[in-house]
Design brief:
Number of helices: 7
Structural class: alpha+beta
Strand content: 5-15%
Radius of gyration: 22 Å
Length: 212
């Protein structure tokens, strides 16, 4: 009876998983390409970070669904301790699902320019760098990837998108461009330009809308 309960609970959670996160995430992607709080154009690197986070979250959700599905068949894989194994698989499966859902929530926050999402993403990047160092040299790939992510999140034009520039910094917004002091940062490549520049000197992106 208990195994039947695990099987039924796992099936219900697996079937409802899509309804928990997918509409929420798709709604976020329907928005504009600017921050809801600052109005600054989303840096292109954020799209890559969101895609990576979404991929990892999808893996967590998929693993959670598999674990919940297997929880109902614990007696076939662990005949000596079926109830304990079923409960363990169910617990780990639910935890994996929650991690996946939390990951998609962070994706939404990063996509829409939420400051709390920037803080969490930066903290997670630093944490994974530390974990990579503890696993060195096996963790070298993780160290490089998350070091690049942390470096990118700390760039002025990215911090401006999330409203995370330091207090006392002269900051404004001109046609979706982050303006820091007497410098204007390109929303595409992040290069620093003079305030009167119409195009980015590095990548050629138009900095002023409506200007020839």
């Amino acid at each position: 009876m208990r195994l039947y309960g695990y099987k039924r609970m796992g099936a219900n959670l697996a079937m409802n998983c899509e309804g928990l996160f997918l509409p929420f995430f798709l709604k976020a992607l329907e928005g504009t390409n600017s921050s809801e709080s600052t109005g600054i154009i989303r840096p292109p690197g954020i799209t890559i970070i969101v895609l990576l986070e979404a991929f990892g979250s999808s893996l967590s959700l998929f693993a959670g669904i598999l674990l919940l599905a297997f929880a109902g068949y614990a007696s076939k894989f662990f005949p000596r301790h079926p109830f304990m194994a079923g409960a363990l698989l169910l617990t780990i499966g639910i935890f994996s699902l929650l991690l996946g859902i939390a990951g998609f929530l962070i994706c939404w926050g990063l996509w829409t320019g939420q400051g709390w999402a920037w803080s969490i993403a930066l903290a997670l990047a630093v944490l994974k760098i530390i974990l990579g160092l503890l696993q060195f040299p096996l963790g070298i790939f993780s160290i490089v990837i998350y070091a690049l992510i942390a470096y990118y999140l700390w760039q002025p034009h990215v911090k401006a998108f999330y409203g995370k520039l330091e207090r006392g910094t002269t900051y404004g917004m001109d046609a979706g461009r982050p303006v820091l002091g007497d410098r204007v940062f390109c929303p595409k490549c992040g290069a620093s330009n003079t305030p009167d520049a119409n195009f980015c000197f590095q990548c050629g992106t138009r900095l002023r809308e409506g200007k020839p």
